[in-house]
Amino acid sequence: MTGNTEEVKQVKGSMPKAIKMAKEMDDDFGQGLAGFYKAIWKDREDGLSMKNKHLMVFAIACSKNNTNSAKKILVKLKKHGATRAEVLDAMMMAAWTGGIQNFTDISTDVLPEMDKLGY
């Protein structure tokens, strides 16, 4: 994998499965998808910090009841210095946008994972 796909590893920290699969289908499709990832995750002057970007995607994952994604993002949030209070705030925002039932469902898995990661 070259070009955009390699740069995604540097920007995001890992190679997303979607890019690997797109690349297998068609090189141009893989490169295009990698460009999309790069645009979202690169640092921009006066833009959101990596921690804030991950807090946002964490809240979205929680609001969509996507437990697997939320747990993976917790690891990234820990790496970027998010506090327990910040993560809990994001979960509460998810309850606001996704509904209390999603919050109930996801908090059952996410709260123990937070403890496990040392939040």
TrEMBL record:
EC number: 4.1.1.44
Entries under InterPro entries matching the protein: AhpD-like, CMD-like
Protein origin, superkingdom: Archaea
Main enzyme class: lyase
Alphabetic keyword roster: Lyase
A Pfam family per the record: CMD
Gene Ontology MF annotations: 4-carboxymuconolactone decarboxylase activity; peroxiredoxin activity
Domain Carboxymuconolactone decarboxylase-like per the UniProt entry, residue ranges: 28-103
Protein name according to UniProt: 4-carboxymuconolactone decarboxylase
Biological source species: Methanococcoides methylutens MM1
